[in-house]
């Protein structure tokens, strides 16, 4: 019980922190939007970070004729912004240098993440509370005079006396009732593992189907590597190829590699995505790696849930 109380204290502290952060970022964004105005700016550059992350920068002029430039904090698709495009952005009237793009992610993403963490902690606390209620219901009606004996027997301070007393059978029944209540609660929790596993399997299957349709709906070209960009410990090749119109294009690969050394000038078949202006190598790893990972994790979660259910049901029957 002391461990459970300590866990509750930690959870309540996490809940408090997440709630405060959620309120802080929500209030901060709300104040900004109430003091901001929409100003039309012009895209002056688009910064590319491999493999396919595009950060547009917008130049805008305020009422006092001062010029400022703001870069998006959230990556966008290549086809979404082009140099010279006119874009509306929010600019703080009190601080013209403080500007944001009018996207949901840029305004509310941080507050939403904190809220999700807070909600997760609330679900865990509700589960613990339900577990305690189940224990109380299973021990309801037990003679009150046994509570002190049970407490001492559970803590191991008076085991010999508990076994020798005439009340030991009732104490054992309390222990079995508590164990049964915990097993019944954990039996319900196993459905969470199984459900998460099934969802991951569905997500992996859907991702694999999308990759298959993507490969069959986009053109494939024979491309050669013209450059390799090093980002951290990963390498991202830059491919060049001649498209159907006879134009020579250069595109980043969507996936990088840590251990594979790309050779400049080597030729590889690639799938070209005209919208994102990126290419994907026609290999199983490049196309179906994410789908495979999701399916493997899904099988692991479902397998653990089924194994726990089998072990818990066996304990319930034997107990």
Summarize the structure.
Helices cover 53% and strands 24% of the residues. With 319 residues, the chain is an alpha+beta fold.
Number of strands: 10
Distance between the termini: 22 Å
Number of helices: 6
H and E string = HEEEEEHHHHEEEEEH
Largest sheet: spatial strand order: 3-2-1-4-5
Average pLDDT works out at 77
List low-pLDDT spans. 141-147
| Largest sheet, strands/sense/barrel | 5 strands, antiparallel
What is Rg? 30 Å
Global morphology: flat
Q: Into which percentage range does the β-strand content fall?
A: 15-25%
- Which structural class do you get from the secondary structure elements? alpha+beta
Q: What level of helicity do the residues show?
A: 40-55%
Verbal overview:
The protein is flat, with a radius of gyration of 30 Å. The two termini are 22 Å apart. The chain has 6 helices and 10 strands, in the order αβββββααααβββββα. The protein is of the alpha+beta class and 319 residues long. It has helices at 2-34, 104-138, 147-155, 159-164, 168-217, 284-318; strands spanning 36-49, 53-61, 67-71, 86-92, 99-100, 220-231, 234-242, 248-253, 267-273, 278-281. A 5-stranded antiparallel beta sheet has the order 3-2-1-4-5. The model is unreliable at 141-147 (pLDDT under 50).
Question: What is the element layout, followed by pairings?
Answer:
Elements: H1 2-34, E1 36-49, E2 53-61, E3 67-71, E4 86-92, E5 99-100, H2 104-138, H3 147-155, H4 159-164, H5 168-217, E6 220-231, E7 234-242, E8 248-253, E9 267-273, E10 278-281, H6 284-318
Parallel strand pairs: 8-10
Antiparallel strand pairs: 1-2, 1-4, 2-3, 4-5, 6-7, 6-9, 7-8, 9-10
